[in-house]
Structures are given as C-alpha cells and as structure tokens.
Amino acid sequence: MSTANRGVNIGPPRFKIAVHAIVWLAKSGSILSSAMIANQVDSHATFMRRVMQSLVAAGIVESKGGREGGYILRKPADQITLGEIYSAVSTGPVEPDFDIDCGEAAKQLDKELEKILYEAEQRTIDYLRQYTIADVMNRVDFFTI
Predict the structure, then answer these.
(1) CA atoms of 133 and 98, how far apart (whole Å)
(2) Class of residue 52 by CB neighbours under 10 A (exposed 0-12, middle 13-18, buried 19+)
(3) Do residues 93 and 114 make contact, with C-beta atoms less than 8 angstroms apart?
(4) Where along the chain do its domains lie?
C-alpha cells in the first residue's frame, strides 16, 4: 500500500497546523493576527486561535491584544524545536497509572497498550526535539509555495 498521497498522521491533529503557523510567524518577523495566520495555513481563524493559545501557554509565541494585536514568536526559529510544538498542542495521553489493579485480561491488555503508546509518544517528542523551525524552513523552497 502506497503512502505517497496519504500523508502521515502521527501525533495530535493540531501539530502540522501549529508548525505551519510558527513558520509563517518566523518568515514574517512581525505580529500576525489569527485571521492572517489562518489564511496562510488554510485554516479557520477560530481554530487557529485555539492552536495559538496552546502555543502561548507553552511560551513559544506571545499574544498581543488590541486592534493591531496578534501573535509573535517569543524566541528565534532556531531555538524552537518540533518537540516543543508537539508537546504544546498534544492533548493526550496523560502519563498512565502503572499501579492500576488489572485482574481481567482486557484491562491488563489496555494497561500494557497505554504503557506502549505513552513510551512511543515520549520517543516521538525526543526525536522531534532534534529539529528546529529554522531546520524545517531551510528544507522548504518558499518560492514554490
């Protein structure tokens, strides 16, 4: 089965949108409104505001209020890792409770799967920390976008 046209859907759905938003903020070097960012990443402004709030809470971007407000990066693109972004927009899984009493086979299977999925996500985040927004930007030919 070919995956050439399907794309990869690992991680939280907001991850790709968040990366796109941060790239556009880095390219602009200025404050952009959620509507401007949403337009650039082909998303809805309300959804974009939710994504941006996760990034604000993580300290990746800063929110400026008012009529001329919007979002701006809090640090340079070469200091923002994909792992940080992934963690900021990830809503699950919470660290599993490894001390649950699991007498039944189904509960035990669920417990083991949660451990495996938790470890997989942690490894994904560790891997993504190797790449910065600047690294991603250097791989893209912005003249063809």
Answers:
(1) 35
(2) buried
(3) yes
(4) 14-138
Per-residue pLDDT of the chain in tens (145 residues, 90 and over written 9) = 444 444 555 667 789 899 999 999 999 999 999 999 998 888 888 999 999 999 999 999 999 988 889 999 999 999 999 999 999 998 655 455 445 444 577 777 778 878 888 899 899 999 999 999 999 999 988 765 5
CATH fold, domain 14-138, is: Arc Repressor Mutant, subunit A (1.10.10)
With a CB cutoff of 8 Å and minimum separation 6, the contacts of 38 are 44, 45, 47, 48
- Taking the C-alpha atoms of residue 86 and residue 61, their distance in angstroms, rounded to an integer, is 14
Find the DSSP H helices in 29-132.
34-41, 45-57, 82-89, 105-128
Distances (CA, A) of 83 to 16, 25, 56, 129: 12, 18, 15, 4
Query: 21: alpha, beta or left, given left = phi > 0 and alpha = psi -120 to 50?
Result: alpha
C-alpha 52/C-alpha 3 separation (Å) is 30
Answering whether pTM is above 0.90, one says no
Q: Which amino acid is at 57?
A: A
Q: What is the helix (H) or strand (E) element at residue 134, kind and residue range?
A: helix 133-138
